Amino acid sequence: MPWEKNFNIDDAVDRATEVFWAKGYEATSLADLLQAIGINKGSFYNAFGSKKKLFTQSLLKYEREQRRDILAELESLEDPVLAINKLFDALIEQSLTDKDKKGCFLVNTALDLPNHDIDTQKTVKKGLKGSESFFERQIKSGIQTGAIPKTIDPGICAKGLLALLVGLRVLARGVFDKTSLMAIKKQAIDLIH
């Protein structure tokens, strides 16, 4: 008799993402995933193949639905300085309301990058490069409109903004309070003025 899934794969990936995000890849056990998804071991292997493959699906889905969608929405704003401001405001708000202090799944994975396989490393690097590219496009747009000084180097400044974004996401996991997170945002905005 062929195997039939009796659960929604997308929902299962979402539930697995929550576990991976909270615990990290290494600390997440198969038992954790089975409990979160609500399936047995056979169904798990039939649907996902392995913990590693499910982790990859989770990371890609998070990257697509969290980072890319948010940046695309901000990019539609006509004011690039406002877009950068809104991004940092949103990250601070998200961090302060995250009672579990999970941070960013992509950044959390980046912190453990040497211990991940090549595919995961590529996904993380592509995601972070996408954020850097967002900043660079906003800076170039701001230079064109006169909102950002022509003396700003878009590539260098974008790297600085990415570093501040990553730092904010790490420090917001319980080290920095709102005032300190706002200081990071101030530094980010100062970079483009």
From TrEMBL:
DNA-binding positions: 29-48
Keywords, in A-Z order: DNA-binding, Transcription, Transcription regulation
Gene Ontology MF term list: DNA binding
Domain of life: Bacteria
Protein name listed in UniProt: TetR/AcrR family transcriptional regulator
Any Pfam family: TetR_N
Stored SUPFAM superfamilies: Homeodomain-like, Tetracyclin repressor-like, C-terminal domain
Keyword Ion transport in annotation: no
Segments forming domain HTH tetR-type: 6-66
